[in-house]
Amino acid sequence: MKPSALSTHVLDTAAGIPAEGMAIELWRMEPEPRRLVRTITNADGRTDAPLLPPETFAPGRYELRFEAGPYFAARGADPGYLGTVVLNVGLREGQGHYHVPLLLSPWSYSTYRGS
């Protein structure tokens, strides 16, 4: 079985740059919601360490919470209507590396399972 892990990165598609300085939280949603990680993206729009490395990975439902509104406000941009972007994901054992990129502007966002 492949070891599983979770990572992310954020791209500011309005400016065409990595989203440096964005706060991200990872929550485990079961059996009760519990925050596991709070981190800030680096100059590459990535976290310095995986959100869930293989040694702490557990299957289940998780939420990634990206603080998009404060990120745009700190850059002097109108945050539009985005505040916190919440992605609810289900992670299974043996599926390898889960990478969840976020592409966003003040008006929209998209995501996918990356590699």
TrEMBL record:
Substrate binds at residues 9, 46, 112. GO terms for molecular function: hydroxyisourate hydrolase activity. Residues 6-114 form the Transthyretin/hydroxyisourate hydrolase domain. SUPFAM superfamilies: Transthyretin (synonym: prealbumin) (SSF49472). InterPro entries: Hydroxyisourate_hydrolase (IPR014306), Thyroxine_BS (IPR023418), Transthyretin/HIU_hydrolase (IPR000895), Transthyretin/HIU_hydrolase_d (IPR023416), Transthyretin/HIU_hydrolase_sf (IPR036817), Transthyretin_CS (IPR023419). Keywords: Hydrolase, Purine metabolism. Its EC number is 3.5.2.17. GO terms for biological process: purine nucleobase metabolic process. Signal peptide: none annotated. It comes from the Bacteria. The keyword rRNA-binding does not apply. CDD domains: TLP_HIUase. The keyword Hydrolase applies. PANTHER family: 5-HYDROXYISOURATE HYDROLASE, URICASE AND TRANSTHYRETIN-RELATED. Homotetramer. Belongs to the transthyretin family. 5-hydroxyisourate hydrolase subfamily. This is 5-hydroxyisourate hydrolase. It comes from Roseomonas indoligenes.
